[in-house]
Design brief:
heterodimer; A: about 450 residues; alpha/beta; 9-stranded mixed β-sheet; 16 strands; about 15% strand; disordered N terminus; B: mainly alpha; 24 helices; 4 strands; about 50% helix; globular
Chain lengths: ~450, ~475
């Protein structure tokens, strides 16, 4: 049965001899900064994964606006959510040709994503989940990180890094935060975690006092391998010294009250540097003293703020604006040579139950199952991306039952592994052999550029 | 897999300095030099029993900084207007208590329980006052009875806010606490040891409790309690009113896996990372022993810790079974070793950057473990912590020019530095790194060199991994 994330990581530490090395940005002994990434890395497609931590309420993200033949979705929705529903006119319609007859829409706190949808840059993949859904935050998070429900021990992007390699001098997999996420941990390779650029500095500076200390600090990497964890701690010291050296000349993004914006702007700066950044992972949860998407109670206000932060974070990353206002210190839109190769994907460990669990402003929702995934691609007229994202709704909306007998939960209509393999095969050009034949890429989610 | 026979020693064999250093590092925020001298050569068992000899909290004279008093007098939360500052004050209060307590194992257990029943402040509730009171409840049960602890946590005011017990009412059950009661607090999630239906039924049984009013007093409101029949983990019961939560806990803790699950958590925190995880597919003799003690003693935590700390497996000191220290432990231990107050070392700001601000765990699953603490981000934060805490940022003197610094060894006496930090010695590489640093700085002022030694020591593999 499944290992949890923490068991996996702890277990790795026990495998003496099978050293799980961090990707060394620069080879020990190389003068700092002498190793440049493979020039080809500039031509790669980029993938940015935003993880909505806590279980995003998919039904108040992509929302029914009406009933359609055989599926009285809005009537059911209205009935089981007396306190936290939206009325049809409050919902931003998903009204592209081919989608309009579904009578679905997205939350009013996501106006930028809605306008990108209308421009043909957004795919909404419905009902994504895996069989035998696990309702535990921790188990289900591991499964979404790995795309391996039976054995969630290595991240789906980490395994991509295993197959693709992490060339010297590259931050091919980049996490923003304090702790490298499982998604970026493979069996042999892994990504690198950076919290914020301005914190990647030694506080004792780079002068005659600090530098000799840092050189000594780096030598902790020579700790003998018979104490594998101490050796690993030492290797982190060397990695840190090298990373600090590489990053200390790079400017930092402004700090905004929106934590997701800050993380995405940090990623954006590093993507614009010649560091070979290809896959980025960012958590989205609450902020100081504010819970994340695990909205068991008093859901509406929290969820609205989170979706607004998500919308504005993505807006800041792509355009340098939030709510249409320029963010001071950000230099306009993401440059086209990157924007035209970048795909953003939002995922969460699960959706939430159809019915609300309380009453009035206290109402929330308990842990559920399937939920929609947003994918935001380059502009339709991008000449750089050799692969195009097909905008609009993909997959079926999960069954919600009838007003007489509402469903309790939303179940899978799209297999998570097919979604991941779509991104791997089409966007990153590196299909996962473990997914072959059983988990074919989703039909028509991507197409070849004309 | 048991430890090699050659590494095993009897509990009554004399403790080596290595034994004492390791025992105190894991169970007592590190040995002082005096601890090393006192217990080395004594029976190992005597050192363990010394740590375990903690009189019940309520039988002791209240310390001047006892949690409840501080909360009442608003001392610990002097900045209640700014909730976040209150959390930071509380964090510094607690780390200082870890550093100075006469009963370090008790405080180390409270840290374990804070991670196990991980509750974070939220705006507006639970606020730091409720969390400090919860912290005191955990201290009351720290080495006591686990069943009583689970019962008190179930109706703890901070917990009622944190996992939505307050919203759990008849007709509108909220599953949040019930799920974590099984998954995180008593049984573990893998393999599936309970069903979704068990969670729903347990949530109904727990309805009616809420922390309310200006004082957040916990009350049972019979009108909000679901009086119907419930079936939890195969046991069916009718309405038991305000005793029903105890019934649910009885049922959970009667499961065969329950003592193994807590034993696994204890071994993971104080012993080593068990290769079998919490699936228990492979036998782990230490988990089995600790679980047997928990079951046999009817959930006595002190007995379980005694079994663990005296075990051959704990004492074997297998280099492949080391533990990564968590930041709070690193900070409390370093402040203790050097003799600086956690308040003067401004630990909350620094702990926040290291990713472990007390009273603010990232989620109900608690903090990371083992390698999850070792990334460039946290490595840099720990290095910078040493620089900042001891005020060594630019001036090379910092605390070394103070009275505290006068007590610290010269830069070229690494044996004395190891002793200062409660270590039986330094590993060969760490010793070589620091020795070469001092040699390379031959012409520098002595206090600059001592500052370098101090920073390198508190960020060394020897200090991070025990």
């Amino acid at each position: 049965m499944a290992l949890t994330r923490r068991e996996f990581i702890g277990r790795m530490a026990l495998v003496a001899g099978a050293q799980f090395l961090p990707p060394i940005v620069f080879r020990a002994g190389d003068a700092f900064g002498q190793v440049e990434p493979d020039p080809e890395s500039a031509n790669r497609n980029r993938l940015v994964v935003i993880f909505q931590q806590g279980g995003n309420d998919g039904l108040n993200t992509v929302i029914p606006r009406g009933d359609i033949s055989g599926a009285p979705r809005y009537s059911v929705y209205r009935k089981v959510r007396p306190a936290i529903h939206y009325t049809p006119e409050q919902i931003l319609p998903l009204d592209r040709p081919g989608d309009a007859d579904q009578l679905l829409g997205i939350n009013r706190n996501m106006p930028k994503i809605h306008s990108l949808y209308r421009e043909g840059r957004v795919a909404v993949v419905q009902g994504v989940d895996y069989p035998n859904h696990n309702y535990s935050h921790f188990e289900s998070t591991d499964i979404w990180h790995t795309g391996q429900p039976e054995k969630p021990d290595a991240g789906w992007i980490g395994r991509h890094l295993d197959r693709a390699g992490v060339p010297l001098g590259e931050l091919r997999g980049l996490g923003i935060g304090t702790e490298l996420p499982l998604m970026l941990r493979g069996d042999q390779n892994e990504g690198t975690e950076v919290q914020s650029i301005n914190q990647m500095r030694f506080l004792d500076g780079t002068g005659a006092v600090g530098t000799p200390r840092h050189q000594a600090f780096s030598r902790f990497a020579d700790h003998p391998a018979d104490e594998p964890l101490r050796r690993f701690a030492g290797e982190q010291a060397r990695q840190t010294v090298q990373l600090v050296d590489r990053l200390q000349t790079i400017g930092q993004p402004p700090r905004t009250p929106n934590y997701l914006t800050n993380a995405l702007l940090t990623a954006r700066i590093l993507m614009q540097e010649n560091l070979g950044v290809e896959c980025v992972f960012v958590w989205h949860s609450g902020g100081q003293g504010v819970g994340g998407y695990d909205t068991h109670s008093a859901q509406k206000a929290t969820h609205e703020r989170l979706l607004s932060d998500l919308d504005q974070g993505i807006e800041a990353f792509l355009f340098g604006t939030m709510g249409g206002q320029a963010v001071a210190g950000v230099n306009g839109p993401l440059p086209p040579e990157i924007a035209n190769r970048t795909l953003i994907m939002t995922v969460s460990e699960f959706g939430r139950r159809i019915g609300e669990n309380g009453s009035g402003t206290n109402a929330g929702t308990d842990h559920g199952a399937a939920a929609p995934v947003f994918m935001i691609g380059p502009p339709q007229d991008s000449a750089l991306a050799k692969v195009k994202l097909t905008p609009g709704l993909h997959g079926d909306h999960p069954d919600m039952g009838s007003t007489a007998l509402p469903a309790d939960n939303l179940f899978m209509t799209t297999e998570l592994r097919r979604l991941y393999n779509s991104a791997l095969e089409w966007w990153l050009g590196n299909p996962d052999p473990a997914y072959e034949t059983r988990y074919e890429p989703l039909t028509n989610l991507f197409t070849h550029a004309a | 897999m048991s430890a090699p026979a050659s590494l095993l020693r009897a509990a009554d064999a004399p403790a080596t300095r290595q034994d004492v250093s390791r025992l105190f590092a894991r169970a007592a925020f590190g040995a002082t030099a005096a601890d090393l001298d006192r217990w080395a050569g004594q029976p190992y068992e005597a050192a363990v029993d010394h740590l375990l000899n903690v009189p019940a909290l309520d039988s002791r004279a209240p310390a001047p900084d006892d949690a409840e008093r501080l909360v009442l007098e608003n001392d610990v939360v002097e900045d209640l207007a700014g909730l976040y500052n209150g959390v930071r004050h509380a964090g510094q209060w607690w780390v200082e208590r870890m550093r100075t307590t006469q009963y370090p194992l008790e405080e180390r257990m409270v840290l374990f329980w804070h991670d196990h029943f991980a509750t974070a402040y939220l705006d507006p509730y639970p606020d730091v006052r409720l969390l400090v009171l919860q912290n005191q409840t955990m201290r009351r049960h720290a080495l006591g009875n686990f069943q009583s602890m689970v019962a008190d946590m179930t109706v703890d005011p901070a917990m009622l806010y944190w996992l939505n017990g307050n919203e759990n009412a008849v007709g509108k059950p909220n599953e949040n606490f019930a799920r974590e009661l099984f998954e995180l607090f008593t049984l573990g999630v893998v393999p599936q040891r309970y069903t979704e239906q068990d969670i729903r039924e347990a949530a109904r049984a727990l309805t009616g409790w809420a922390a309310e009013g200006a004082t957040k007093r916990v009350t049972f409101n019979a009108n909000r309690h679901d009086t119907g029949t419930k079936t939890v983990l195969g046991t069916t019961f009718g309405n038991l009113g305000n005793q029903e939560y105890l019934k649910v806990i009885d049922i959970a803790l009667a499961q065969d896996v329950a003592p193994k699950f807590l034993a696994y958590k204890l071994v993971l925190n104080f012993g080593y990372f068990p290769a079998t995880g919490d699936t228990f597919q492979d036998p782990d003799p230490l988990i089995d022993k600790v679980a047997a003690t928990l079951r046999g003693s009817n959930w006595n935590v002190k007995d379980a810790m005694r079994t663990l700390l005296l075990s051959e497996e704990f004492r074997a000191a297998d280099p492949a079974k080391q533990l990564v220290r968590q930041p709070i432990d690193i900070v409390a231990s370093a402040c203790k070793a050097i003799g600086v107050s956690a308040r003067s070392a401004n630990v909350s700001t620094l702990l926040e950057r290291m990713g472990q601000l007390p009273f603010d765990p990232p989620n109900v699953g608690g903090w990371p473990v083992q390698k999850e603490w070792l990334s460039p981000v946290t490595t840099l934060a720990r290095y910078d912590w040493g620089v900042t805490a001891f005020n060594l940022t630019t001036l090379p003197t910092g605390i070394l020019g103070s009275g505290v610094g006068a007590q610290l060894p010269p830069s070229n006496d690494l044996d004395a530095w190891a002793r200062q930090f409660g270590l039986a010695g330094l590993s060969a590489n760490t010793r070589a790194v620091i020795r070469d640093y001092v040699a390379a700085k031959a012409g520098a002022p002595e206090n600059e060199k001592r500052a370098g030694v101090l920073i390198l020591l508190v960020s060394s593999p020897d200090w991070m991994v025990i």
